[in-house]
Amino acid sequence: MADLLQNEEVLRLLELSKNGLLFAIWETLYLTVISTFFSYVIGLPLGVITVVGEQGGVLPLPRPVMAVLNFVINILRSVPFLILMVMVIPLSRLILGTSIGTVATIVPLIVAAFPFVARLVEASLREVDSGVVEAALSMGCSPFQVITKVMLPESRPSLISGFTTAFITILSYGAMAGAIGGGGLGSMALNLGYQRRMTIILWVSVVVLVILVQIFQSIGTRASVRLDKRIRAVDRKKKRKSSRTEKAGFQ
Amino acid sequence: MIELKQVSKVFPTEDGDFEALSNIDLTIADGDIFGIVGMSGAGKSTLVRCINLLERPTSGAVYIDGENLMDMSPAQLRQQRRSISMIFQQFNLLMQRTCLKNICFPMEIAGVPKAEAKKRAMEYLEIVGLPDKANAYPAQLSGGQKQRIAIARALASNPKMLLCDEATSALDPTTTRSILKLIKDINQRLGITVVVITHEMAVVEEICTHVAILERGHLVETGTVEEVFSNPKTEAGRRLVFPEGANIDQFPVAGVVRVVFNGGSSYEPLIASLAIDCGVKVNILGADTRNVNGKAFGSMLLGLPQDKNEAVKAMNYLRAQKDVTVEEVPDYHG
Fold this sequence. Notes:
The complex is a heterodimer. By secondary structure, chain A is mainly α. Chain A has 12 helices and no strands. Chain A is elongated and about 75 Å long. Chain B has helices at about 45-50, 75-80, 100-110, 115-125, 145-155, 175-190, 200-205, 225-230, 235-240, 270-280, 310-320; strands at about 1-15, 15-30, 35, 60-65, 65-70, 85-90, 160-165, 195-200, 210-215, 220-225, 255-260, 285-290, 295-305, 325-330.
């Protein structure tokens, strides 16, 4: 390792990639933020519908509609991301006019992530006590008010945990997009680190990804616990620790 | 006024239809505190949810002040529900809102301006005796305090009626009494009609003016609390009013009778005079006095002597007394 670091060629490469690294981090973040945003724009309403649209829900929808919705979500959830990316190339071309490059990977990321987000939102909303919803209905809440004033605010801590999970999942999916010409840390690790055998760059990219995940996970967990009014202040520290270990793995 | 006319509710289940309520006719007058009692599974919760149509009856009509809720559009129904508040066994407060914001909630729904809502919410906190908990979250309160906040929230929409679904069943006896006192107070001060669902006769005794007994979806008995308590006409009523307090089984009793004193008279002289006048000795298996709306009601389980003649003599003597109801208890098992 020491020999390797003194190797002049390697030092030059590192020098070159320093700018490259910062750019890659920026690309990764912006890809993740935009994709997460649009995944929620589509996934959040769908997640809400899967809960309220059920028979006996707040806003029951016709059974066939619900069946189609669940079927579509399940199908999209079951296609492996690498394959999905290739499959939506025509869609990327239609929407963005291009199918390669960092921006083009946003489309497959959203297509892959919004069903995941819908399921996360669904799980959060199901945690809301049905008694509280019943109380709201007894006060004369409309279905829309039940959703916006009861279900979403009451499940806020869980929604934030879910958001953290989604964000990190999209971050790692985004890294995979390097394989089909997307930018960011993933592409750096694959193209420079693996294919051009610059092992150090491979390791550096991975370490940076790990650090990013750690940062976002702690921010998310902290926010979720701090904003949860069901927990008394004294229990908060304990809870934060336990919920961090709970969220260790996704999917 | 609440009127239920021929209300039935059928739940489809895997093994056929289950009739939770069948042909319920019930009238609750303004200002009453009306108790609906029954064993668990009798359909009480379904019945109270039919009053505000949280459960839509399969057939029948629900009139609130002469208007049939069954004919209303969803929007009209929501409007109507604002005048029928409800409190629950599990309180059902919004856990992510402060107490003050919980009380503001119904006003927020109804579009009351924020400042006014806050001002009124503080008044309701005052009424329920928790003005210092405005900024506390429900998780920081005890069960009794949570129910008080729920009551304040129920009052916030200026209701004509308050439905209480097992509102005290999750509370200890002392807290139960204080919550019942609060409900009675609200009934008297604000003139709100109260419907109380409970499986505890003690709750009915404590606050109700009228009572209905529900058994397996049927309304078997209705009346003032005095009527039903002094002389329950049905088996279900008797089971609830006299849950067989006595459990002395060492007496070899041939027959057991229940003697109910309808207020006024005391029962000790009766037993003494029974012994003197008829020369019949009876065993007292159990005795109980209840205070119903300020009047004393006593009931006593008597074991009659084994001798048939003496037993008949005693029965006839007891039946001849004024203000006393006597009935045989054929299924007394100690």
